[in-house]
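Marked as duplicate of an earlier ticket. Keeping the data here for the record.
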Amino acid sequence: MSATVKVLERRPLSFLQRTYLPGVLAGMRTTLRHMVAPKITMEYPEQRPPIPSGYRGVPTLVKDPHGREKCVSCQLCEFVCPPKAIRIAPGAIDATGPNAHVEKAPKEFEIDMLRCIYCGLCQEVCPEEAIWLQNIYSLSGYARADFVHKKEKLYELGGTLPDRHHKWDKKKAAEEAGNAH
């Protein structure tokens, strides 16, 4: 079986095509059109694009309005995280402290933001609403270690949010009522 080769002949260029004049004029038209069009450049740090309504955001830790840690180190977020970006080391609570009725608190809590896929499962599974997804989308750093957010950094990013459950206040009131009898 022999292969047939088809030879295509090039058509000769016209005079205008040889001078590149059509290409130059098309480029000038594009340049002039952009000179009179409104600017679409955004001055980034001062102006930020609108965040889409479905954006889930960066997972952070939040405190309750009294400044207490909401995380009780149940480790559900660590177990449900698909890329295993969350690591928690549970710690004990001081038996004489104001939060003695809480079983435990995280001694270490870190989220590797380079592994995080922003799925939001950690927020959904958290029974204490301690993990909250914030509308932060511009994390920066110079090394990989800058993107492993430890507990302090997570609380700094998360801040304080209202507590709809008032779980600790209710337990404390119930304990005080039980001790009064």
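See parent ticket for discussion. DSSP finds six helices and five strands in the chain.
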